[in-house]
Amino acid sequence: MSLKVYSISLGCPKNRVDSERLLGSLGLSIRSVKRPGSAQLIFINTCGFIEPAVRESVRVILDSIAERSTAKADKPLLVVGGCLVGRYGAADLAADLPEVDLWLPTAELADWPVKLLAALQTAGKLTDGRVTAGRLLSTGPSYAWMKISEGCGQSCSFCTIPQIRGKVRSLEADFIAEEASGLLKQGVSELILVAQDLTSWGQDLKIAGKKPELRDLLEKLLPLPGLKWLRLMYLYPAGLTEDLLKFLRDAGPPFIPYFDIPLQHADSGILTAMGRPFSQSPFKVVERVRKYLPEAALRTSLITGFPGETEENFATLCRFVQEARFQNLGVFAYEAEDGTPAATMQNQIPVELRTERRDRIMELQAEISAELLQGHLGQNMDILVDEPHPEWPGLYVGRTWFQAPEVDGVTYVSGENLRPGDFVRAEISETFEYDLNALVP
Description:
- By secondary structure, the protein is α/β, with parallel strands linked by helices.
- It is 33% helix and 22% strand.
- Strand 3, helix 2 (51-68) and strand 4 (77-82) form a beta-alpha-beta unit.
- The N and C termini lie far apart (47 Å).
- The model has no long low-confidence stretch (mean pLDDT 93).
């Protein structure tokens, strides 16, 4: 049977993976539609990590409710899952949004396919169906996200994830490898491993009497046929041990030396207040990575305006950004989230100052990024093509090895008859603050 689906995943790539696994497990032919009102199923996977994400999730739900009301035939089934449900609970949300037909809490992720199939059958959208192993890829043929664990075992004072997603629950290595093989057989060139804390994978498992480590999983994935790039996202700083870095140094392709390390701050006092287990100088983490992989591209995320952050603390952060020279960097103005220890701390920083400090960091990073990219001018580089440019024929959107999808800059490639998923050798012809232009000879 076929099913017309309007699906949207908000927030991080881990949500996207949950949606792809859910829709791929229904054992149905899924036909994606562009408007909620023309679907049989509307599925919204929400984010509830911070207050702006909560507001966006609620707005998308309300917009879908309004769109559904315009449907001329049977109304689509409206299903909402994800972190918003995990944070606030299905019962409370149902009281405020009774138009939603089914709520899927994060704590019941494994039961989502069964619950959704039952709801579709009850609503008369299906006559039969069964849960099966599968994944409905939504990123196109160039890359796919691979979520390898659920939840987080850290206790950062600003973060709601442990409340929403629970403790670490690692997926079995064989399941991950099998899913990866299936994606590669579909023609995917790049796999990107993601988790709330990638380096903690395996700490809740036991194989042959011992806990597996991330390198054990990587040893299963790196030899897979068809894998061109393997990228690691969200490597907790304390988990980047010398043993792991030595292994990655010696691994070689398809591993690419791109390290996404969420350091959050540079001042030891602020890091301690944040509850970060690695509150020493973050320079030690940066230096350790560059000791083993001097060519590595580093990405980090930072928070400005954490409670108690003085001008001196902020100046330390600015110096760190200037000296570390990250290839890519994201900055968030602190949000005081209900239920977190940081929300009740003294010396909360005014919102305007948090935002101003965020903007100052991004101004520094824009200069650094522009300088680093300018160093590639005239070089011939391998570019992974993601998609045709939506407006300019003959122009394609792609990425170099140091550009992760959806969070970093892109490389615009001019060439003929390119296809998503292709690797092309192209000369970098122009550089900007975050993006590149390249020409295929």
